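Progress narrative, work stream C.
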Amino acid sequence: METRATMAKQSYRVCWCFRRRFKMRAAEAPREVKELFERYDSGGKGVMSVEDLQRFMSEVQGAETERRSRDEAQAAMDALKHLNIFHRRGLSLDAFFRFLFFSDANPPLDPSLSVHQDMTAPLSHYFIYTGHNSYLTGNQISSDCSDAPIIKALHDGVRVIELDIWPNSKKDNVDVLHGRTLTTPVELIKCLRSIKENAFVASSYPLVITLEDHLTPDLQAKVAEMITKTFGDALFYPETESFEEFPSPESLKGRIIISTKPPKEYSETKVVNEGSSGKVMDSHDEAAWGKEVSDIKATLDAFDKRNDLDAEDHQDEDDLDETDHISQQNAAPEYKRLIAIHALKPKGKLKEALKPMPDVDKVRRLSMSEQAFEKLIKNHGTEIVRFTQRNLLRVYPKGMRVDSSNYNPLIGWMHGAQMVAFNMQGYGRSLWLMHGMFRANGGCGYVKKPDILLKDGPNNKVFDPRATLSVKKTLKVRVYMGDGWYTDFKHTHFDIYSPPDFYVRVGIAGVPADSVMKKTKIIEDDWKPLWDQEFQFPLTVPELALLRIEVHEYDMTEKDDFGGQTCLPVSELRTGIRAVPLYSYKAEKHKSVRLLMRFDFV
C-alpha cells in the first residue's frame, strides 16, 4: 500500500495491480465570501481597497469603533504582506479569502484582549483553573509521580496545584504521592522548586497550593521550613486565622497561597495490593477522543427518580473537607501560620455545611467529590449557589475515576463552584471544556463568575440552575469549510484506500436548556471539505455557554477517526467570518488544520 499525491490528483494503491485516483482541488472561497467581496468592492473592479476592507471589518466582523475597524484592516494588510499576496491597489478575491482563512490575524478570540475583567473582587467571585492530584503522570493507581505534570499545568495557566504529602520510607523527609496505591513518589522539595520557577510563567495572578497532609508535627515543621525558604517573599502570610471576605486576585498578584484539605480523598480509591499489576485502562483507550460529556439534565433527572432515602442526607466521611487526622492543636505552629485558606470541618450532614455559621461572619472553603455534589444539588442547588457567593467550593473527581478521566465541569460552574478540580494529565471532551472556559480573560486562570451567580434576583432569590429561563440571545454558527489535514497528517492516516470523509460536530455546553450537539453532512473523499451549513443555538444563559467544535472522519466499518477539536467561550467570540484553529485530542495545536466559520448573535 502506498500513496502519491500532487495538488492536481492523488492515487491510492488498493492492490498490486489497481490504483484508485482522486482529484485534489485547490481551496476555493465559499459562495458567501465571494458575495461579500463583491458587495464591498466599491469600485467594481475586483479589488477591495483599504477603505472597503475597513467597512467590512465594521459591518461584518463586528469592529465596534472606527479605530478598531481601521486597526483590524491594517492588521489584515500586514498579514497579506507576510503571505506575499498584497497588491498596492488593494485586495483581490484570492487575497481577501486567504486573509480570512489562512492568516493568523483572524482568530475567533481577540488576540489583543488580555486580562480585561474586574480582578478586584473577592476570590469567591471567580472560577479558578484547578488541578487534581497535579503530580501524577497518568492513572491514579500505578503511574509515576513527578514535577513534570506540575510544570506543564503551570505553563497551561492552571492556578491551583494539589500535592498529597506523606512521610518518606525512612520517616525523616517528605514525599509527594497518591497514598496507598502503587504510584512512585517524588520528593516534595523537587515539586516546590519547580513550582517556584514556573508559578507565574503563564499568569501573574495568585497560585494556590492545596496540601493534603498526612504528616506528623515534626515533618510539618520541616515542610514549613521548605516552603518558607523556597518561596521567600512570594509566599502569602495571612494576617488573621480566617477572613471575613477573601482577598482579590489583583491584591494577591505574584503571591503563592497555601491551603489545606482533608487527607481522606485517597480512601475513595481502592487500595491496590502489592500483587496487583496496577494496570488501568486509559480513558482514551475507549475512543481516541474519549467519552461524550455527561448530560447534566440526564444526571439531575436520574437523581430525581431514585428512591433511596440517603440521596439527600447521606455523605461519606471522605466527602467532608475536614482538618487533618492530626488535630490542629497538635500541628506545628510554624506550619499552621502558613495556611491562608483553611478547609473547615462541618458539623453534621453535608447540607448543614452550606448554612451560615451562627455568630461567625467568616468565609470558608468546602470540598466534596463529584458524587457527593451530584447528590447535594438534587434538593439544595440554590443553597449551593448562595453559599458560593461568599465561600469557596471545590469539587473533585470521584475515586472510581482511576483512569484519570473527568466529569462535566458545567455541573459545578452553573452552581457557582469556583474550584472544579480536574485531572489535567487525562484527555477527552470534559477536559476540552475546561480548556475552553479558561481561554477567557486572557488565559490568566481566573474567570469572573456571571452576575446571575453573584447577585440575588427579585424577592431575594438566587439563580436556580434547574429553572428553564427565557432565551436571551441566539448564536448563529455557519461552518463553511476546512483545510490543513493533508499537510498535518499522513495521507493514509484516515483511510488507506481513499481521501477522508469529514464531518463536523458543533454545539453548546452550558446549562441543561442550552446544551446540544449537531452535525454537518459528510463530505466524501475530500481533503478540503466544503459543508456551508448553518446552525442556530438559542441560549438562556449565554454567560456560561461554551462552543464545542469537533471534526470526525466517517468510517463505515470501524469507529470514526478524529480530525481535531476546539472549545471557545461564547462570551468572548468575535462575530463575523473567522479562521478557527483545531487541536488534537491531547489538546496540542495542529500546525495547519483549521475551519472557516461565521458567528453572529441575534
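Work stream C, second folded protein:
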Amino acid sequence: MSITCDGGGAAVRFRFRPPLPDLHSNGYTNLITIFMILCFTSISHVCASIHDYQNETFIHRSNSFFFHGGSEGLYASRVPYINDTEDNSLNGKSFIRFESITFRRTKESAENKNMMQQKTGLVEAIIVKVRDRNNIGGAYLNSDAICCTPEHADNGSCKVGEVIIRQNPNDPSGPKRIQTFFEAKNEETKMVLQTVDISSTGMYYLYFMFCDPELKDTTISGRTVWRNPDGYLPGKMMPLMTFYGLMSLAYLFLGLFWFLKFVQYWKDIIQLHYHITAVIGLGMCEMALWYFEYSNFNSTGSRPMAITLWAVTFTAVKKTVSRLLILVVSMGYGVVRPTLGGITSKVYLLGVAYFAASEALELVEHLGNINDFSGKARLFLVLPVALLDACFILWIFSSLSKTLEKLQIRKSMAKLELYRKFTNSLAVTVLLSVLWIGYELYFHASDPLSELWRRAWIIPAFWTLLAYVILLVICILWAPSQNPTRYAYSEETGDDFDEEAVKLAGSGIKVSGDMSIMLERKDRKASLAADLHVFGGLGEDKEEDKRE
C-alpha cells in the first residue's frame, strides 16, 4: 500500500502497492501470501527515486528469501542508455541504476564454505513488470516453488539454486536477472555498478532474492536510482507537477480578480472579505510550493526537506482555514451576525484540532521513509482527520439550516437568495465528493498492483480542484460591490440574534421572536420619547415659575 505524494485534497487518498506482485494466478497460496502480507503490513512511501537500503534483511517465503527493492511506474526510454558513453545528458533516458549495493552474510555462513570454491553463494536482482508477474516462479510448471529444485532442473527448466524465470524470446523487455556471487569465505560481496535501460513502459518491481538457506540473515546495503525520460519524478507523480503548475496560475488569476475588486470597492469592504483574501493567499503559496517541490524532486531524485516541510504546513493551514471559512459563512458571520459570540472558542478549538491532525498525516505521507509506517500506524492518523471532517460537515449544514430559517422569517430576500445559492453549491460538492470516494474505492480495489498507475494522479488532483471550485463560488457570491449593505450585517434590519435567546426555557420550542424584538425596540423608543416629553414639560413649568 502506497501513500500518494500530493499536496492537497480534503480526503484520505490510498494507493495499494504490494511489494511483490502475484507470481501465480492459479491459486498457489504460498506466493499469494507474500503479496497479501506485504500489502497490508507495509506502507511504501516513495520519498525519492533514489531508494536507500541500510542493512535490510530478507523475508523467507516458500523456498526463497526476498527483499523488495522498490517499485515505480517508468516510461520507456526515448534515447537508449549506453554505459560506455561519457555523455552527461540524461534527457530522454529511463533506467534503473545499481549503486554500491553490498550483500553481507553471517560469519557462520561464510565459515561453512570451502575456501577453494570461487562461488559460494548467489543473490539475484530481478526486475519485473507487473504484467510479467506470472513468469516468476513455477506456476507454468504446476509448482508453487519460487526457486528451482532438482526436479525442475532435471526437466531443463532452470538451474538449481536460481529463481525460476520463464523468458519470452519474443519479448526482450521481460523479467531481467542480475546475479552476484559470494566468493570463498568472504562475508561481503559487492554488486557490479550497472544500469538497466527501460525499453518499455510499465510498473516495474525490483527484488533481491536468494535460494540458499545457508544465506539466511544476509543483509543488503546501498541504493538504486530510478529515472524516467523527463526526470527522476516517479511516473505516477509526473502529471501532478504539471497540474500544480496550472493550479498555481489558477490561484494567481483568482487572486488578481479579487485584488482588483478589493481595490475598486475598498471603502465597502466587510470583515468577511479579509478572511477570503487569506484563503486565496494560502492557496497560491500552497500550489507554488508543491510545484517547486516536485520540480526539485524531478531534477535531483530526492525530496527537498525544507520545501516539502513548508508545502506540507501550508497545505494543513489552508485546509484548516478553508473549512473554518465555510463554517463561519454558514453561520452568517458578517452577513446575519456581527460576531460568532459564545461559540468562537468552539470554532477555534475545532480548527486547532484539525490543523494538528492534518499536519501529522501530511508529514507522515510526505516526509516518511520507505517501509517505515505500518498500516495500523497510518490508520491511527487517518481516523482523526476523517472524524473532524465529519464534524465540519455536520456543523456547516446545521448552521446553514438555521441561517436560512432566520432569513426566511425576516424576509431578507437578497440574503436568502445568496444563502440558497451557497447551500446548493455545497450540496453539489458533497454529492460529488461521495461519488468520487466511491470511485476511489473501486479504483483501488480493481487495481491492487498499480497497473493503472498512469491514471492514479487524478485521485489527489480532484480534491485540489474541488477545493478551488468551492473557493471560487464563495468569491463570486461574496465579491466586493458598490452595495455591500444588501449582504453585510445591519443592526437596523434586526439581523442580530442570539440562538439561546429564542428558546423557551425547558420547552424546547423555538420562538419566532424577530418581530417581537423589533416591536420591543419600537416600544422602548416610544417610551423613551414619552419620558423625554414629560421631563421636558416639567422643565418648562419650572422655568415659567422662575420667570413669574
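The chain has two domains: 46-81+89-227, 235-483. No further action is required on this item.
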